[in-house]
Fold this sequence. Notes:
CATH superfamily: VC0467-like
CATH architecture: 3-Layer(aba) Sandwich
Low-confidence stretches: 1-6
CATH topology: VC0467-like
Helix content: 10-25%
Number of strands: 10
Structural class: alpha+beta
Order of helices and strands: HEEEEHHEEEEHEHEHH
Radius of gyration: 16 Å
Amino acid sequence: METQISSELKGQFLMAMPGLADPNFSKTVTCICEHTVAGAVGIVINRTHPDLSLKTILDELHIEHTLPAAKSPVYIGGPVHMDELFILHGEPFDWKGCLKITPALAMSNTRDVLEAIANQQGPQAYLVSLGCAGWGPGQLEGEVKANAWLTGTVSESIVFDVPIEERWETAVRKIGIEPSILTQTAGHA
Length: 189
């Protein structure tokens, strides 16, 4: 039973409640990539880095690239491992270190997938982030129970197709809640 409880958030979105005080997560949507008894890892999908594009990163890593890839934004994936790249992506899933999240979504953070994306030979749908979100054992479960987060099934269309500034409201509506009725304070049942 403990294994089931500890892995139930993998493949879920976390939508920050309006009262969540942590500025790293205010009005964010986080895709939970892994959730075990050891903790959880996710990528924030609705915060872009104000000063970086993928071109900057590819140039710094000396990776040849095409113009379409170079124009891609870089996301702020969370406050953990801010010096590492994480890539949420669709098919194919045959990259080194690829972690399948859902049948249609995976996370990778290896150079092979980044080089393929840079040359338009990798996944067509992708999101590149610096950093990730992380929780220790039991931490995320406690935050969900304390009403810091709403949860709902990951939607690849929200990750890749919905405009960035609309992702939080779209994800909240997808679980049947009108965002305007949410208050700044968390309640307890």
